[in-house]
Design brief:
mainly alpha; about 0% strand; globular
């Protein structure tokens, strides 16, 4: 068994390369560029970078950007950034054809964003995000096959 890569606090780090959908690849494979473990973006940087990744159909990587933000944000903003990260993980599950996981993560994300309340959200329309972040709304937005 290969030992896990851990940080200075003993927390596991994910050193495995990932594909464009965030799925782990073998250690010797070449994956897509990852968000560094120590990434600490400003709110504005996180929003811009995550939007670019979502536009490129890479919600797993957008989740990593939002995760980087919630690790360094002021405590009163944690629910916002964790909620956005969870919605992105929900989108990742939807991409991977896991509707049960998608539903659970989308609801957790929506719940966190709702608990954030009506505080300023860096220009984001949180009501629109929570309305759009349901499995039904997302499936309706997908092109017919």
């Amino acid at each position: 068994m290969t030992p896990r890569d851990r940080d200075e606090y003993g927390r596991a780090r994910s050193a495995r390369p990932r594909d464009e959908y965030g799925r782990p690849l073998p250690y010797d494979a070449v994956g897509v560029p990852r968000v560094p473990d120590d990434y600490a973006p400003s709110a504005e940087e996180a929003i811009i970078e995550a939007a670019l990744l979502l536009d490129a159909a890479r919600p797993f990587h957008a989740h990593e950007v939002f995760e980087g933000r919630w690790k360094c944000c002021p405590p009163e903003e944690r629910e916002l950034w964790q909620g956005l990260a969870q919605i992105c993980v929900g989108l990742t599950h939807l991409q991977r054809e896991n509707p049960r996981g998608a539903t659970a993560l989308l609801e957790r994300g929506r719940s966190r964003i709702r608990s954030y309340g009506s505080r300023p959200a860096y220009g984001m329309d949180l009501d629109a995000i929570t309305r759009a972040a349901t499995i039904e709304a997302l499936r309706a937005a997908l092109p017919a096959t």
